[in-house]
Amino acid sequence: MTAAEVVDVLDKGVLVTLALCRDSVPYLVTMDYAYDAAGRCLYCHCATEGKKLDFLRANPQVCGQVLFDDGYIKGQCEHAFRCVILDGRAERVEDDAAKRRALELMVEHFEGPSPEAKERLIKGLDKVCILRVRIESATGKRSPAKSEE
Predict the structure, then answer these.
(1) How far apart, in Å, do the first and last CA atoms of the chain sit?
(2) Which residues contact 93 (CB under 8 A, 6 or more apart)?
(3) CB 50 within 8 A of CB 102
């Protein structure tokens, strides 16, 4: 995949599965997210306490996958997909202005311009944890491979 295709998958994706590890014990968690191209990061929201946060406190390094299942191709014995694998570091966003911006980005990603949804999320700002996954590297793959023209 080209760099532009990787960005397209990250931009249009809705779920990222993150692989976490603590004391040599793996843990997978799937979360909805919004991609911030300017910041080269993903924003996710979650509860303020829980297993994923325990794992991230112990080891902030993550590996993630964003996958588009484009369906099985009958008669070709092949499954069409596009995916991006990323490596990065996850961190809690503590600053209220940055949390608000992340939530606004997520609302825009999922609902488009929606002042009502933004207001609902902003009212709950202190009740939610925002995670920023800073992408250090990302590669993509598609099947069937795009034909060379």
Answers:
(1) 14
(2) 43, 99, 102, 130, 131, 132
(3) no
Distance CA(25)–CA(42), nearest Å, equals 24
Domains of the chain: 3-143 (2.30.110.10)
pLDDT tens per residue across span 3-35: 999 999 999 999 999 999 999 999 999 999 999
Sign of the alpha-carbon dihedral angle for 69, 70, 71, 72: negative
The structure tokens listed for 100 are 């608000």
**CB contact at 8 A, 47 and 126:** no
Distance of CA 70 to the CA centre of its chain: 19
**Which region, left, alpha or beta, applies to residue 91 given φ > 0 means left and ψ of -120 to 50 means alpha?**
beta
Residue 90 contacts residue 136 (beta carbons within 8 Å)? no
